[in-house]
Write a structure and sequence with these properties.
About 50% of the residues lie in helices and about 5% in strands. By secondary structure, it is mainly alpha-helical. Helix 4 (about 90-100) packs antiparallel against helix 5 and helix 9 (about 215-230) runs antiparallel to helix 10 (about 235-240). It is globular, with a radius of gyration of 22 Å. The mean pLDDT is about 90.
Length: about 270
């Protein structure tokens, strides 16, 4: 109640607290030990879920220590950090997904924006046709997607403006003509959409794609396609809203020049 409302993603913290409460609500801070952390992790669906929730609890403990003092500060034992999923779509898979989403226009819009810009799901769902301080918005005159509102607090999940690709811009101009006075880009009968998970899952199943294709796969796809096209990493990273280090570490092997100088040099040396 004191700190969470001021962070960039308060709803995410609320979701984590909902997962933490059944196990931790009746315990004292002093009970945070290796064993209790492991017991909590065993009680959750996945190690990844447990890790994210424990990170939120640790942040709360550290905040309390900073503001009010806490002695001693407990040490957390975290589940092992798993390698991030990197499932991306081929062009044929993306076309199949879009074809199955054609009867649910808000999902088709979501997929197109995700594929063409690599924008995170929450930012896509928040997009408005009009300038906003609370959400991102589209400037179709300048061809710029503002992924966040001017009054939004910036978090480590970067949401910089991005140039809208020409093909997507043509779609967006048509969507705006259809929407007339509707404010939300991703809308259902004029109302904002909070989640597309169910509709996305239906489209994925009808397209006969594997279960590891999730909304975030669209971001992986955009990053992978950019690398496969040979785009300079600093250009791609700026467009996607991620650091060059993350882009090269996760997607760099898709670039046609990946380690080419090293492989060429070692082959020449052997010769």
């Amino acid at each position: 109640m004191e700190h969470a409302p001021s962070v960039g993603r308060p709803k995410l913290i609320a979701d984590h607290i909902e997962g933490l409460a059944p196990f931790w609500a009746h315990r004292m801070v002093a009970s945070i030990k290796g064993k209790t952390c492991r017991d909590f992790a065993d009680s959750r669906t996945t190690p990844s879920m447990a890790r994210h929730e424990l990170e939120t609890l640790r942040a709360a403990v550290n905040y309390f220590h900073k503001e009010y003092g806490l002695d001693p500060v407990p040490a957390f034992t975290m589940p092992e950090k798993h390698r991030a999923r990197e499932r991306w779509l081929t062009r044929d898979e993306a076309a199949a997904l879009l074809w199955q989403a054609r009867r649910t226009p808000h999902v088709a819009r979501f997929i197109l924006i995700g594929l063409y810009t690599g924008t995170r799901s929450g930012a896509i769902l928040g997009l408005s046709w009009l300038p906003s301080v609370k959400t991102g918005w589209l400037d179709l005159e300048q061809g710029i997607m503002h992924r966040s509102g001017s009054g939004q607090r910036q978090s480590n999940k970067r949401q910089p403006p991005a140039a809208i690709p020409e093909r997507l811009l043509a779609h967006m101009r048509r969507w705006k003509r259809l929407d007339k006075n509707i404010r939300h880009v991703i809308n259902w009968n004029g109302s904002s959409v909070l989640s597309v998970k169910k509709a996305f899952r239906n489209a994925r199943q009808n397209a006969k794609l594997s279960n590891d294709v999730i909304p975030h796969s669209l971001r992986h796809t955009a990053a992978t396609w950019l690398m496969q096209s040979g785009v300079e990493p600093w250009q791609a990273a700026g467009f996607l809203g991620m650091t060059v280090e993350v882009l090269e570490r996760v997607y760099g092997h898709h670039h046609p020049n990946f380690q080419k100088a090293a492989s060429t040099a070692i082959a020449a040396r052997r010769a």
